[in-house]
Amino acid sequence: MRYLVDNHVYNLSDALPEEISDAWIVVDRVELDPDDTTQADRLSQSISTAFEHGEDVVGIYIFDQEEQKAKSKRQNGGIEVFSRTFRCPSCGNVPETLTLSHFSFNSPTGACPDCHGLGSLLNFTEDSTIDPDKTIENGAVMPWTQDSYYYFVLQGVCKHHKIPTNVVYKKLSDAHKKIILHGSDAKLSLSTPQMQKPWNAKYPGVISYLNRVYHDPDTSDSLHEKVDPFVISSTCSTCSGYRVGDAARSVFIE
């Protein structure tokens, strides 16, 4: 028995490398001879054996130097991988049985689950919500005006995390910007005369808060009017704008 380890053949008695990224059991080796009529039966039996012991996956490694040089640029280090089951021979993923509906973004079956077949999403970003030339206390977070509840919540958050509110946003550290935009795990208890009610929760961050209230069907019309000017359309990161789900995007025609 032999092994093919990272494009090198080893006998069973050989010491294998300590670090292995790709390993195969060698079932058969043959030098093709067009005049040998017995090779077809031999290859057929060898491939059947390989499929049986390889969980329906077999790899073909070509030792011709010129051919192998071209194939080595491909995935699996030059090994041509074949599967006799409906699954990806490289990652092992077993997709659902494909139908025409999987290739239509107008179908619930085929549409990207995140953008629902639109190819884009309405959301909020740092650029759409932050004025980098203003300080926190002077309204750098544009959706939260200086008389709003969350403006005072943010003041308390900045105090807790020692984020300077009198420094323009663009000069804040990346760590401080991350807290302002995406929140923190610290549970805070905040209360000031200007706040309508005490705050006793984790701070969600500007982006998370705005996305939640924008997509919440129970959000009031008045609140929508305040946040709508800051929403933007961006390409769906899940489907990259192709509008269909994983199953359809995994199909390629050569």
Defining traits:
single chain, about 250 residues, Helicase, Ruva Protein, domain 3, 2 domains, three-stranded antiparallel β-sheet, 8 helices, 9 strands
Task: Put the structure in a nutshell.
The chain is an alpha+beta fold.
Give the overall shape: elongated
Show unreliable segments: 71-76
**CATH top-level class of the largest domain:** Mainly Alpha
Range of helix content: 25-40%
Main β-sheet description: 3 strands, antiparallel
CATH-defined superfamily of the largest domain: ABC transporter ATPase domain-like
Q: Strand sequence of the main sheet, in spatial order? A: 2-1-3
- Class inferred from helices and paired strands: alpha+beta
- Total helix count? 8
Task: Work out the radius of gyration.
Answer: 30 Å
Distance between the amino and carboxyl termini: 35 Å
Number of domains: 2
Order of helices and strands: EEEHEHEEHHHEEHHEH
Give a written overview of the molecule.
With 254 residues, the protein is of the alpha+beta class. The protein folds into two domains: 2-83, no CATH class; 123-235, Orthogonal Bundle (Helicase, Ruva Protein, domain 3), CATH 1.10.8. It is built from eight helices and nine strands. It has helices at 39-53, 65-71, 126-129, 149-160, 174-182, 206-215, 221-227, 246-249; strands spanning 2-5, 8-11, 23-26, 57-61, 79-83, 120-123, 187-190, 199-202, 232-235. The strands form four sheets. The chain has a three-stranded antiparallel sheet, with no helix packed on it. A hairpin with a 2-residue loop joins β1 and β2 (8-11). The relative contact order is 0.12. Residues 71-76 have low confidence and may be disordered.
